[in-house]
Amino acid sequence: MASTTSKSERNRGVIESYPEFLPVSASTPVVSLGEGNTPLIYCSQLSKRVGRGCEVFVKNEGVNPTGSFKDRGMTVAVSKALEYGAKALICASTGNTSASAAAYAARAGILCVVILPAGKIAIGKLVQAFAYGAKIIAIDGNFDDALRIVRDLGESGDFAIVNSVNPDRIAGQKTAAYEIIDEIGDAPDFHLLPVGNAGNIAAYWVGYQEYHAYKRSTKLPAMIGFQAAGAAPIFYNRIIEKPETVASAIRIGNPASWKQARGAIAKSRGAIDVVSDAEILAAQSWLAQHEGIFVEPASAASIAGLFKCCDSGEAAYSFQKIPEASRIVCTVTGHGLKDPDLTIQRMKELKPVSATTTDVRHAIGL
Ligand code: AN7
After folding, report:
1. Which of 34, 39, 50, 301 has its CA 20 to 30 A from that of 308?
2. pLDDT tens for the 366 residues of the chain, in order
3. Atom in ligand 1 nearest the alpha carbon of residue 125
4. CA of 162 to the centre of ligand 1 (A)
């Protein structure tokens, strides 16, 4: 029997919410921080901007326990690692995977080693990995180098790899698609999301297909992925040796789930497209200032992508193809406070005024 999620069950975590769809059994030691069941927020301003009677929802994954969607996959990967008897976890990361792995390892009482591209991790994510007590190794290389090393070390049998090359991660992450269908009663027509290592787009597609097979939904969404223009191997169909983008979370040149992402896009009749750094940052500000949802730059790629689909004839999925009254879900993957540096740069210096009502009125501009 499938569970449905309701507010009173808010903190059950994805394994307890969807055990029948996950590779767990009664003997799996569940390591959870109450991840999942994240808000699916109807966005009136975004819907208005898209027009044509479309409804736009944002799935806000930034409110997971460590502030990103990675927690959904990590609860399953770490629980299974414990079940298999692993003594230590290892991952490569652009930041969020390491924050999540470190937290769940702490909770499981096992060691976590994280391999990171030196100087390329957003400050909040690095702070998290330190706070949770991970063993942190910074390398002179990029994420793709880090993942290569992790795969090598994983072969020794000393570590359980908790990157999305581990199928338990994908299994956990697909629960976000279940939640969307449980909440709105059917799959959306379009699902937009950022793409980095490409695990998440593959995971959502698995989730949508499974629920469809179980007749929980009547349709399948078109999956539309967005890469940063300087780190867009899937879009350009070639490995990018030196990926560059302000969206450090998706600064990946050789995604592990490349093939699965291509499959999801082709089978769902979706698309892969690119958004520029300027478009990403503009979308990040817009979403914060018009909908009250502050996300990290990588997450804003889905919103930048939505705008591109609406505004540009150049988009891989121009909205001319989108029927009126479509339901669109955009996943925003991580919290804005994880990566505040660029927002801080845009903040004007705050000059104190004297502590009088008159001067404060003046400063407000009244
Ligand atoms: C905020 O943490 O790859 O396409 O090592 O942190 O499933 O990789 C993060 C990826 C999107 C891309 N948004 O998801 C890592 C890492 C945020 C992210 C992605 C990431 P995938």
Report:
1. 39
2. 344 444 456 689 999 999 999 999 999 999 999 999 999 999 999 999 999 999 999 999 999 999 999 999 999 999 999 999 999 999 999 999 999 999 999 999 999 999 999 999 999 999 999 999 999 999 999 999 999 999 999 988 889 999 999 999 999 999 999 999 999 999 999 999 999 999 999 999 999 999 999 999 999 999 999 999 999 999 999 999 999 999 999 999 999 999 999 999 999 999 999 999 999 999 999 999 999 999 999 999 999 999 999 887 777 777 666 789 999 999 999 999 999 988 888 777 778 999 999 999 999 999
3. 2
4. 13
Give CA 34 to chain center in angstroms. 17
| CB contact at 8 A, 201 and 305 | no
Taking the CA of residue 163 as reference, the ligand 1 atom at the shortest distance is 5
Residues having CB within 6 Å of any atom of ligand 1: 68, 93-97, 164, 194-200, 249-250, 296, 298-299, 333-334
The predicted model scores a pTM of 0.95
- Taking CA atoms only, the protein residue closest to ligand 1 atom 12 is 196
Give 171's DSSP letter.
H
**Mutational pocket test of ligand 1: of 197, 224, 227, 339, the residue with most ligand atoms within 8 Å of the beta carbon:** 197
- Ligand 1 atom nearest the C-alpha of 252 is 3
Structure tokens at 129: 């990995």
Name which residue sits closest to atom 14 of ligand 1, judged by CA.
196
Of 93, 194, 107, 101, nearest in space to 147 by CA = 93
The candidate with the shortest Cα–Cα distance to 323, out of 222, 211, 226, is 222
